[in-house]
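Two proteins, back to back. First:
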Amino acid sequence: MSLFSLIRRAGDFFLPQTCVFCGSPGFDNGHFPVCETCLEEFIPIEPPFCTCCGEPFSGDVEEHLCGRCLKDPPPFLSARSLFAFKGRARDLIIGLKFKKNLSTLSIFDLILKRFPGWQSLYRDVDVLVPVPLDKKGLRRRGYNHALLMAEGLAEYIAKPVDRTHLTKVKETPPQVGLTRSQRRRNIQGAFSVKRTNRFQGKAVLLVDDVFTTGATVRACTRALLDTGARSVRVLTFARTTLE
């Protein structure tokens, strides 16, 4: 049984029957401890957006490649994000990453059911791979939040998760506050694949928490492709922007 499943089952027994975000005692979502008001604060990213990196477009335009992807095509086939990094989506990520608040994972199933726009991404996918933490980061946090998200997705779509073969071999300073070019330099060469034939010929769905500039998922994608992956698509829980 995955760590995600254990956390979710523990939540069914031990979490108070109040909303995990606002503490409201009134909600009508089965056994999921989240109120409708807080669910409405998840802002889904919907078309139109860049057909490659998923950057949202404003106005009534057709989907097309954005200027950045035309100028510097990413190595992944496509990237999509479920939500804007605002409201309760931001609260969920911040709680997982910095406050060790695992209680919000108890609503992950409900979120996936209520916002199904991501489902087309897993067609023809062979394996889900979470973006890894370095050893220091994993010791500090105690768990990899991207792995927990990947396990939640995997249970929903019945695909396997590779938990160990994509590794972060270089400790890097936090990306927060860095420019786009600084992020790329910071993360360059940080990822490697154990057992180089592990992803040979496989279609990979790479899972992470937040897409900002794409520097991290670009670096992970290159490591996967360099060791034989057939293709890489990217799914992140949320997306922010950095000019």
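And the second protein:
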Amino acid sequence: MKVSAIIPSGGVGSRFNSPIPKQYIKVLGKELITYTLEVFQNCNLIDEIIIPANESYFELLNQIKIKNNFTKIVKIIPGGKERQDSVFNGLTCKNFDKDDLIVVHDAARPLLSNSLLENAIQKAEKFDSIVVAIKARDTLIESSDLEEKIVLNYFDRSKIYYAQTPQIFRYRILHESFLRAKETNFLGTDESMLVKKANFDVKIVEGEFQNFKITTQTDLQTFEKMLK
């Protein structure tokens, strides 16, 4: 059994207001994606890394690979229109064994700890499908669609989690879930949604608040401060 990481890196970061995708912005002299790749390169349980990306950034990714001696990067491949397409490209770019574990992680989520990654992989070995998530701590409100937002309802936060990555699945489960989604033209927001929709159970592994996704300039500034 192999453990393969797919790091989709084809996003354009439309909410980030930057001329280049956020994962390639330099923070303290290194591209954001470099910090993410370091986690997977240094994890003893990861066998290989596959990066679906916009072909315009292949040269940069190869430079990052060589400069940082990222020996586990085995393929840099074309991404797709949506994140779902990029991950599917990763799933079909080589032959996997049915029981291999596929670890999907956001390129712009660089503060994943090695302990959380290893714990998630070990849980996936036992339960086949896992999603890292953190428990909601604040009051959850449903609002109206009006310009002036009005409170409509409150939700029981005791049962609510915020999904993170990594999300880890047996290859046979994830591949089948993607095929079913294609058949029904279903576009999910993450892999766990596709797997659940295909009627597979997904176990929650408790995440970490520091494992946040960099989505805005404020997130980037917070990340930089945490590195100093």
